[in-house]
C-alpha cells in the first residue's frame, strides 16, 4: 500500500538556486552506534544547516507562543488572589467557573482548529489566532463584573485551542521521526516554565505596578500578557514557513525545500490529502485514533493527582511557611522539565520510546502507592510528589508516537493530535471533580487510590500500544521489501532511515487503504 505524494523530489527540476547538495550515496548511513544530542552522526552539513533554520524559525515561535499561553492560563489564579476577588466581589465558586468556561472553549475548539490548520496557510492562520487571543486577554483588564469575564474566558479558551495541538502538528510537519520527541519535549517544557514563572511575574507586577495610572495590579497583569503576546504576531508572520509543497519561505532556498520533502519522504510522511467524506472512515477505521486517545486519556487520569496543587495543599495543612508552600512544589515542575528533555534526547537517539515509558510508569505507581499509604515519613512524601513529575514527560512521547503512526495521512494526524488533548482534558476535568475535590485535601483518600488504579491501567495499556505500532512497522517493512529475517530486529529497535537511502524502515501508515 502506498499513498500518493504529488511532489516527489525526484520529479522536481533543477532550479536557479542550484542542485540539491550534501546527499551521501544511497544506503551509506548505518544505524548510529554512538550517542548524539541534536543531529545524528553522518548528517550532511546542508541538512544540519536546514535543521538549524527550522529550529530557529519553527521551534522558537512554537515555544514562545506556548509560553505566553500557559503564562495567561496560570495568571487568572494569580489575579484572583491578588485583588480581583475583592474588587469584583467573588466570594463564591466564581474561580472554578472561570476555569470551566475556559476549558469548555478550549476543549470544543481544538479539533476545528487543527482542521483549519490543514486548510489555511499557517503563516497567516496562527498569527491571526495569536492576535485575536491577545485582544480577548487585554479586554479582561476592563471587566467590572464576573459575567463579562465568563464570556471572555470562553472566547480565550476557544481561540487558544489553536495553540497546543496546532503547534505540535507544526513540529510533526517539518521534522523527522527521530527529531520530534526532543522538540515536542522542549515545547511542553516551555509551558511548564511559564507555570513556574507566572507567580514571580505577578509578584513583581503587584509590587511595582499596583495603583499605577489608577489600575490595580491584577488588571496590569492582563495588560502585560497582551504586551508579551504582541511580538509573537509579528514573529509568526515573518518566520512561520509557507506550505512545504506549494512554495518556499523567504529564509529557505529551493534546494533546502527539496531537502525538506526528501527528509519527510524517508519517514513516509505524506502531504495534505483530501478533506471529504472518507476522512471519518480514515480516522475511525484505523487503530491510531482509538489506541492513542485511550493512552492519552489514561495518562491524563494519572496526571490529576499528585500535582503541584495537591502538594501545596499538603504543605499548607502541615503548617509550612507561605514561601515554602509556593516554592517547594516547583521542584515537581523542575523534575518534569529535566526528565522531559532527557527522555526526549534518549528516545530520539535510541529510536525507541519504551524504556522511558517504563520508567514513567514505575515512578507513578510507586508515587501513588506511597500517597495511598499516607502514614509515611515526610521525606517519603516529598519523594512521592517529586517523582510523580515524570508523568508530564509522557505528553511529548505520546504525541511523537501519533506523528509516527499517522505519518501517511496529514488530516488523520491533525485530528488525532487534537482529539488526544481535547478528550484527555475533558476526562481529566470530570475525574478531578469527582476524585480530587479540594474539600478532601490534603489526604485525597479517593484521589490517590484512583490515581494508583489509573497508573496501573496506563502501564497495562502500554503493551497494547507497542503491539499495534510494532505490527504497523512490520507491515511497512514488508511493503518496502525488507527481508523477513531482518524485520523482527528492526521492529524491536526502529531507526529512522537515511534521508537519501533507498530503504524506508520506519513505517508510519495505517493498515487500511486511504
Brief synopsis:
The protein is mainly α. The chain has helices spanning 45-88, 94-119, 122-139, 146-160, 164-174, 177-209, 217-239, 254-266, 278-284, 287-303, 308-317, 322-327, 330-350, 354-373, 378-387, 394-405, 410-435, 445-479, 484-492. The longest helix has 44 residues, at 45-88.
DSSP E strands, number: 0
Quick one: CATH class of the largest domain?
A: Mainly Alpha
Largest sheet: none
Radius of gyration (CA) equals: 24 Å
CATH H-level name of the largest domain... which superfamily? Answer: MFS general substrate transporter like domains
Query: How many structural domains does the protein architecture include?
Result: 2
Give me the strand/helix succession. HHHHHHHHHHHHHHHHHHH
CATH architectural group of the largest domain: Up-down Bundle
- How far apart the termini lie comes to 9 Å
Helix content: 55-70%
What structural class is derived from the secondary structure elements? Answer: mainly alpha
The stretches of 5 or more residues where confidence is low (pLDDT under 50) are 1-31, 489-514
CATH-defined fold name of the largest domain: Growth Hormone, Chain: A
How large is the share of residues in beta strands?
Answer: under 5%
* Number of separate helices: 19
Question: What's the rounded overall pLDDT mean?
Answer: 83
The dominant shape is globular
Pfam family, one: MFS_1
Family: Belongs to the major facilitator superfamily. Allantoate permease family.
Transmembrane segments: 97-117, 147-174, 186-208, 220-240, 287-305, 325-345, 357-376, 382-402, 414-431, 451-469
Membrane topology: Multi-pass membrane protein
Amino acid at each position: 500500500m502506498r499513498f500518493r505524494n504529488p511532489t516527489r523530489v525526484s520529479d522536481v527540476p533543477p532550479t536557479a538556486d542550484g542542485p540539491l547538495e550534501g546527499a551521501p550515496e544511497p544506503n551509506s548511513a548505518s544505524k548510529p552506534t554512538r550517542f548524539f544530542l541534536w543531529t545524528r552522526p553522518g548528517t550532511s552539513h546542508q541538512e544540519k544547516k536546514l535543521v538549524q533554520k527550522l529550529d530557529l524559525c519553527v521551534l522558537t515561535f512554537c515555544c514562545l507562543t506556548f509560553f505566553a499561553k500557559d503564562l495567561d492560563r496560570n495568571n487568572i489564579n494569580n489575579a484572583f488572589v491578588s485583588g480581583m476577588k475583592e474588587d469584583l466581589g467573588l466570594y463564591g465558586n466564581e474561580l472554578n467557573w472561570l476555569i470551566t468556561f475556559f476549558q469548555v472553549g478550549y476543549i470544543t475548539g481544538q479539533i476545528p482548529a487543527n482542521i483549519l490548520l490543514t486548510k489555511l496557510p499557517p503563516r497567516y492562520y496562527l498569527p491571526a489566532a495569536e492576535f485575536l487571543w491577545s485582544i480577548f486577554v487585554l479586554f479582561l483588564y476592563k471587566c467590572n463584573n464576573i459575567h463579562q469575564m465568563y464570556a471572555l474566558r470562553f472566547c480565550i479558551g476557544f481561540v487558544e485551542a489553536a495553540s497546543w495541538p496546532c503547534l505540535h502538528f507544526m513540529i510533526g510537519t517539518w521534522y523527522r521521526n527521530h527529531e520530534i520527541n526532543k522538540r515536542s519535549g522542549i515545547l511542553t517544557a516551555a509551558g511548564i516554565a511559564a507555570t513556574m514563572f507566572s507567580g514571580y511575574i505577578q509578584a513583581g507586577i503587584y509590587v511595582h505596578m499596583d495603583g499605577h495610572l489608577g489600575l490595580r495590579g491584577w488588571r496590569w497583569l492582563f495588560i502585560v500578557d497582551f504586551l508579551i503576546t504582541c511580538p509573537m504576531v509579528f514573529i509568526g508572520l515573518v518566520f512561520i514557513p509557507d506550505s512545504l509543497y506549494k512554495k518556499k519561505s523567504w529564509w529557505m532556498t529551493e534546494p533546502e525545500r527539496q531537502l525538506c520533502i526528501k527528509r519527510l519522504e524517508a519517514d513516509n510522511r505524506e502531504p495534505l490529502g483530501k478533506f471529504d467524506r472518507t476522512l471519518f472512515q480514515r480516522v475511525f477505521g484505523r487503530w491510531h485514533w482509538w489506541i492513542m486517545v485511550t493512552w492519552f486519556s489514561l495518562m491524563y487520569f494519572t496526571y490529576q493527582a499528585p500535582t503541584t496543587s495537591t502538594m501545596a495543599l499538603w504543605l499548607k495543612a502541615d503548617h509550612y511557611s507561605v514561601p515554602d508552600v509556593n516554592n517547594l512544589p516547583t521542584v515537581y515542575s523542575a523534575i518534569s522539565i529535566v526528565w522531559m528533555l532527557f527522555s526526549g534526547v534518549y528516545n530520539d537517539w535510541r529510536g525507541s520510546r519504551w524504556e522511558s515509558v517504563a520508567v514513567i510508569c514505575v515512578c507513578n505507581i510507586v508515587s501513588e502507592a506511597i500517597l495511598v499509604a499516607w502514614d509515611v515519613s515526610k521525606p517519603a512524601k516529598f519523594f512521592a510528589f517529586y517523582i510523580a513529575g515524570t508523568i508530564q514527560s509522557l505528553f511529548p512521547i505520546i504525541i511523537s508516537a501519533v506523528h509516527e503512526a499517522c505519518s501517511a495521512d496529514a488530516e488523520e494526524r491533525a485530528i488525532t493530535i487534537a482529539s488526544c488533548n481535547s478528550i484527555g482534558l475533558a476526562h481529566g476535568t470530570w475525574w478531578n471533580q469527582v476524585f480530587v475535590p479540594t474539600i478532601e485535601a490534603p489526604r485525597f483518600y479517593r484521589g490517590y487510590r484512583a490515581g494508583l488504579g489509573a497508573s496501573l491501567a496506563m502501564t497495562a495499556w502500554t503493551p497494547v500500544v507497542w503491539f499495534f505500532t510494532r505490527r504497523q512497522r512490520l507491515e511497512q517493512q514488508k511493503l518496502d521489501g525488507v527481508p523477513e529475517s531482518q524485520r523482527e530486529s528492526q521492529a524491536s529497535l526502529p531507526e529512522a532511515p537515511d534521508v537519501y537511502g533507498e530503504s524506508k524502515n520506519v513505517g508510519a501508515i495505517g493498515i487500511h487503504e486511504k
